[in-house]
Design brief:
heterodimer, A: 936 residues, alpha+beta, six-stranded mixed barrel, 55% helix, globular, B: 234 residues, alpha/beta, Rossmann fold, four-stranded antiparallel sheet
């Protein structure tokens, strides 16, 4: 039986190879899922940890415990044992390598008398065991030199604050031994943290004011033998964040939470990050699932198509087996073996292919944009094997089930069935197709109507209804079926219109299309589905990427924004008997001098996000105010066209001619019920606690209303008082810088820049910092967009869309070729008859070409139209996952012409290849042989 | 009447060799001389593998003889270009294949119409189609597709298609091969009527001895050679 099955595979090499390809791709896509998802999650987690490290300038994963012992009876060894017990417990449960463990034991502040009696300070005495290896001795030595006096060490900071010198002897009267002798310390050395690349000083515990460090034996003696007040300790353990991954993070989070429950003194630096990760994790899983589902369905369609071709060619053989007494199960068993052989080969090939696909998807920088980068975080996982086996088994079942239908007929029943004309009423089919499309559109309408709620659900980490994503597949199928029916209607009409005039080859082609049967309809639907899926993939990816980047660019407003440190100055106001603080503008001219070769334009922008605006009794608080130099601002900032009713330069012009003019956001104008020409007041509160003008109000006339303005975001999201996550309106005003300065004095401003081509952010920062300017923060549009492109979610999206697109292309091409090649093989007799009846080779070719054009090319075009339609209708709903926030730049579907062109070129190449293959097949066709074959 | 006018096909020393890998060519026809009289039903009789279909293919312009000449209505098929053979098959000849060879997606009416379109038939198609299908007794099955017809009915539609464009000759390769005796006889009756009423020349192959009485001329073929010729006069 095995020989028979192998022979069966050999007999239909091409079709079985195609089936194998479908299985290999299915196994590859399924098995790469855990690798891609886990890799993406690992990357997400690592990026979050690294970002945290950069933002907080501290090691991201640490566990620490702060404890105060007030008993005064505590012995040093007991304390140390307690610390080690905690450490061991942590290490037992936390399966992450420890990077560093360090603790400080400290006695609470005691009054220390200087040996010269000139200086008395409250000082802390601490001990950091093991610190000797991690310090630099600036002067002195660690060894004590006088008996009865303990050595101690201090940092330069303590030296400055306490005014101690090396060699000073301090007497702590509050700490006496049993004989009543006070504790004496001698400052032996000035030390500092050694920068040895270790994590020992990740928490700068030595850099505390008024801290004297003593050797461990001294501390032990003080605790055990001296009267002392409270004893503190702080123990810190760092864990290697690079060893934390999606597999162990949940355990780590669980144990940290358990530690917290057991002991309130235990603190951590990472639990909140893990919480955020957990929310993102479900989001990433949803995205992976959502994006892979259509690919999987596409592959099932492909496998079904190939299987149905094989089965229809082997139906006679199956009927023969059934007639010879094979039961249905036995026949199915044969095909199960056949699919088993293919599935086994599929596993062998699919697993490495899945690995490569995952690496390929991970290497994308954008849709179909591959980059050479480190993707080692995406590595093979054991889970790939069960996924591959699962996919293989499902493929085997999927291949075998249709056999049941064929295996129920004996050879006689098969002939009878073959002779029964399928007669599906056109109207019924049309109603079914319209119904399907109607349901899909209704679902889409519903999801669209609930976009606001769905956005909030996404923002709060909720799971979306999977139907939302399946609906796209449903829509494409419905479009495919309905489009095909319309196409058939058109072909019927064409046939009918010229039915008396058509040449024989046209006549045969038209009838072949009209009556070609379900198989040709299936390939057409398959083509429509793959083409439309590819186009939707390209458009959704383009929409997400473009909208994200446009919004990011809008939110920043210019190429580069820089904030310099403004140090407040102060003076004593003798009349008001208080210190008054104020800002003095740093020399702005320095920037022009420094950056003239790097920057095309720059301008100062005062931005205050907490301004009160009032007009005729109504007040809006928390408004954003921008004070600008109109001309410079217009030359420096960017705003997309079409976001306002008028070009924003017109608004700038209005502001320029009205010194006290104010531009207000449309929502603010509505809220305050004001319009152009109305007078409004705006009040700013100084950020300095005791400034010259702690609060000042300016009055101005509304000279324009804007909907969008560089960096002004109309919407923000957050929890309201009732604890609900809601969308809020942000209000904005724009005023003249000169007027603002006149009313409010000098206040810190941002410097907005338009960079010269090729100038990078780091060039600017280096130049500025070399000139001694302290930059407190900066924002670069390009860097932000690059970071966005590299964000895990966007990378996953682009990776999977690219994968889906490429698989669509491959399946579309192969599916198409298989159909036509097998179709010609099946129709060899017919072509032989045509040729025997005197039809020329050229006419037979022309006939096939017309058939191609009317079925495949039109199906391809229909797929293109369906894809475009689906993109326009569905992108909004699908993008909720990626762009849930409402924005000044409304979501707009981006139709990427390049990707469309790519797809269409592939389709045309495919048709040309197919025509060449068909031409060769027809050329090779032996007329006599073909007729003879018919006799057989 | 001349020799050519009396005989539509004259074949001399027809040989057909098929190459066999690693061995000498196999001669399916070993030098046959054959004459097909115009307006008569000629039967090529022989066992399976005797070479009758090969001979039919050569005199039917479907294949070319390796050696020898075949003259069809005065034109030498052996030296003719493929384009000219196509013309002959299309306009001057009609075929009834053992496999029937109807186009499955077309109804009986459309199958016959297809033959007319191929032959660029100038007269009224509808009238001729109905006439031909009536002639084969299927005037009431115009809209039936092959799947909906029995083997005999399908063969009769194939005959209707073959005669519709009024060819000079019809070649029928084992037209009754797949039919039961009664249906086979009804097909032969149709052939006989066509010869008698329409004056068409028919050449058919068969291995069924019961059908010999229908033939005006019967050639007996064995091992690629004609071993006998009988002429029947009614």
């Amino acid at each position: 039986m095995r020989t028979y099955v192998i022979q069966k595979i050999k007999n239909k090499k091409i079709l079985n190879l195609c089936l194998l390809l479908g299985i290999v791709l299915m196994i590859a896509v399924c098995s790469c899922t855990p690798m891609f998802e886990r890799g993406s999650l690992d990357k997400l987690l690592q990026r979050k940890l690294e970002e945290k490290m950069v933002e907080e300038n501290a090691y991201p994963v640490s566990l620490y415990r702060i404890y105060v012992d007030k008993s005064k009876e505590m012995k040093y060894q007991t304390l140390k044992d307690s610390i080690m017990k905690y450490k061991n417990t942590w290490d037992d449960y936390i399966d992450i390598p420890s990077m560093n463990f360090q603790y400080i034991i400290r006695l609470s502040a005691e009054k220390a008398n200087h040996s010269f009696g000139t200086n008395t300070e409250w000082i802390n005495i601490g001990c950091i065991p093991g610190m000797e290896e991690h310090i630099d001795i600036l002067s002195g030595t660690l060894e004590g030199d006088e008996s009865g006096i303990y050595p101690c060490y201090m940092t330069e900071r303590t030296m400055d604050v306490c005014n101690y010198m090396e060699g000073d002897i301090l007497t702590l009267d509050g700490m006496q031994d049993a004989s009543g002798k006070p504790l004496k310390l001698k400052v032996m050395a000035i030390i500092k943290e050694k920068n040895d690349g270790s994590y020992f000083w990740h928490k700068h515990i030595m850099e505390e004011d008024k801290l004297l460090l003593v050797p461990e034996y001294a501390m032990e003696d003080m605790i055990d033998n001296y009267y002392h007040s409270d004893v503190y300790y702080e123990m810190n353990e760092l864990y290697d964040y690079r060893s934390i991954n999606s597999s162990n993070v949940d355990d780590l989070k669980y144990y940290i939470e358990e530690f917290h429950k057991q002991d309130a003194n235990i603190k951590d630096s990472v639990l909140q990050l893990f919480e955020e990760y957990a929310a993102d994790k479900s989001f990433v899983s949803t995205i992976c699932w959502v994006l892979e589902l259509p690919i999987i369905m596409l592959m099932f369609a492909f496998i079904y198509m190939v299987v149905s071709q094989i089965l229809s060619m082997e139906s006679g053989e199956i009927a023969m087996l059934t007639s010879r007494g094979f039961s249905r199960l036995q026949v199915m068993g044969l095909y199960l073996r056949q699919s088993g052989i293919l599935a086994a080969i599929g596993c062998v090939l699919g697993l490495p292919l899945g690995y490569l696909l995952c690496k390929l998807a991970a290497s994308t920088d954008g849709f179909l944009d591959f980059a050479i980068k480190d993707v080692s975080i995406y590595h093979a996982r054991w889970m790939m094997i069960p996924y591959a086996l699962g996919a293989a088994v499902i493929c085997m079942i999927f291949i075998t089930i249709p056999v049941a239908f064929y295996a129920k007929d004996t050879i006689i029943q098969r002939r009878t069935r073959k002779n029964t004309k399928a007669n599906t009423k056109v109207i019924r089919q049309l109603a079914f197709n319209i119904g399907m499309l109607g349901i899909s559109l209704y679902l889409l309408y519903n999801f669209n109507a609930r976009r606001g709620d769905l956005s909030i659900k996404v923002l709060t980490g909720g799971r979306l209804d999977p139907i939302m994503f399946l609906n796209l597949t449903f829509f494409l199928f419905a479009c495919g079926l309905l489009g095909l029916q319309i196409l058939h209607g058109v072909v019927r009409l064409v046939y009918w219109l010229g039915r008396r005039r058509w040449k024989p080859n046209t006549y045969a082609s038209l009838l072949q299309i009209i009556r070609g049967g379900s198989k040709s309809q299936f390939i057409a639907v398959f083509l429509i589905f793959t083409v439309s899926m590819g186009i939707v993939d390209a458009n959704v990816a383009g929409t997400i990427n473009t909208n994200n980047e446009e919004r990011t660019a809008y939110n920043i407003g210019a190429d580069f924004i820089l904030n310099e440190e403004w140090i407040p100055k102060s003076y004593k106001d003798s009349q008001q008997r208080k210190t008054v603080r104020y800002y003095v503008e740093p020399d702005y001219q320095r920037y022009s001098d420094l950056l003239s070769d790097k920057v095309d334009n720059m301008t100062r922008v005062v931005r205050d996000k907490d301004v009160k605006v009032s007009a005729s009794g109504a007040t809006a608080t928390g408004c954003m105010m921008m004070a600008i130099n109109t001309k410079e601002f217009g030359e420096t900032a960017d705003l997309m066209d079409g976001l306002n009713d008028t070009h924003w330069y017109n608004l700038l012009n209005e502001l320029a001619v009205n010194g006290t003019g104010i531009l207000v956001s449309e929502n603010l104008a509505q809220m305050l019920n004001i319009s152009v020409g109305d007078t409004i007041k705006y009040t700013r509160t100084s950020e300095l606690s005791s400034s010259e003008k702690s609060e000042a109000t300016a009055v101005g006339i509304v000279c324009g209303i804007f909907k969008a303005w560089p960096s002004y975001e109309q919407y923000s999201y957050g929890y309201n008082e009732a604890g609900e996550y809601v969308m809020n309106q942000n209000y904005g005003i724009v005023v003249n810088y000169a007027n603002e300065k006149n009313v409010f004095g000098d206040t810190p401003y941002e410097i907005w820049m338009r960079l010269k081509p090729g100038v990078g952010t780091q060039d600017i920062l280096n130049t500025v910092e070399e000139a001694g300017i302290t930059v407190t923060s900066s924002k670069s549009r390009e860097d932000t967009i690059v970071a966005l492109r590299n964000s895990s979610v966007i990378q996953i999206t682009n990776g999977l869309f690219t994968l889906s697109f490429l698989i669509s292309l491959v399946l579309c091409t192969i599916g198409f070729l298989i159909y036509w090649i097998t179709s010609i093989k099946q129709r060899e007799l017919l072509f032989g008859i045509y040729r025997a009846m005197g039809m020329s080779f050229k006419e037979v070719n022309g006939m096939l070409m017309l058939e191609q054009i009317l079925s495949s090319l039109l199906a391809g075009i229909l797929g293109g139209v369906s894809g475009m339609l689906a993109s326009l209708l569905h992108t909004g709903v699908l993008s909720i996952v990626y762009l849930p926030r409402r924005h000044n730049i409304a979501l707009h579907t981006v139709i990427d012409g390049l990707n469309l062109a790519r797809f269409m070129v592939v389709l045309c190449v495919m048709i040309v290849v197919c025509l060449v293959v068909m031409r060769n097949q027809i050329k090779k066709l032996n007329m006599i042989q073909a007729i003879k074959m018919g006799e057989d | 009447m001349s020799y050519i006018d009396d005989n539509i096909i004259v074949g001399e020393n027809i040989k057909r060799a098929f190459p066999i890998a690693g061995r000498e060519d196999f001669y399916a026809l070993k030098g046959m001389d054959i004459i097909i009289p115009r307006g008569r039903l000629t039967i090529l009789k022989g066992r399976s593998g005797s070479g009758k279909t090969t001979l039919m293919n050569i005199i039917g312009a479907l294949d070319v003889a390796t050696e020898g000449n075949v003259h069809f209505d005065g034109e030498n098929l052996s030296t003719m270009k493929e384009r000219d053979r196509e013309r002959l098959r299309r306009y001057e000849m009609g075929y009834v294949f053992q496999s029937v060879g109807l186009i499955p997606i077309m109804s009986a009416y459309e199958n016959v119409d297809f033959g007319l379109r191929l032959a660029d038939y100038k007269e009224n198609h509808d009238e001729r189609i109905r006439q031909c299908l009536d002639m084969v007794g299927l005037g009431d099955r115009l809209l039936h597709v092959p799947q909906e017809m029995s083997g005999g009915e399908q063969q009769r539609v194939a005959i209707a298609r073959a005669i519709a464009h009024k060819p000079k000759i019809i070649y029928a390769d084992e037209p009754t091969g797949a039919l039961d005796t009664l249906t086979g006889l009804s097909v032969m009756k149709v052939f006989k009527e066509l010869v008698e009423l329409e004056g068409i020349t028919i050449v058919m192959t068969t291995h069924d001895p019961n059908l010999m009485e229908f033939g005006d001329v019967v050639y007996e073929i064995e091992d690629g050679e004609i071993i006998g010729r009988e002429e029947h006069t009614n």
